[in-house]
Fold this protein.
Amino acid sequence: MEEFDREPCFGEAQAAPALICLAPISHIPLPSVRRLSSSFTQPSRPVSSARKPAWMSLQGRLVNAEEASSVVTIKGNLSREQAIAWELFSPIQRFLIVAVIGVAVGESKKNRQIWHLKKSVELRDQVLTTMQQKLDNLCKQLTNIKDHPSAGTKMPSTNNVELSIA
């Protein structure tokens, strides 16, 4: 019994109790079973495509590019001459042509938006300049009236001033 009364020293193993008692867990039934989705369905198989897309192999080769970039596959509204010319390009050239055109279209949209923004800034500057000129004229008139008071002159009312914004 002396063995169990003393504190264990560093490095000594402590004997585990022989019996562990847990309080019983009572099961409380829920009023309804909750699910994330009430209409759970089993996952379906992916839909297979009739045509195979082009892809890069681990060796860096473009696989299935001829079929993926053919005139029939892209379903372009090409004339006979354009279709023949398209087929004369190699598959990598076809992809590069489409990529370059895509970038050009994106840049064109950005440039158009920049142009519209510049135009709106120019219009705002014109309006502000016109308003500044009208304000300067009103200040000059007010200064002239204060410098040369006369009995017959009235101060201009701000209600009668017409601002035309072009």
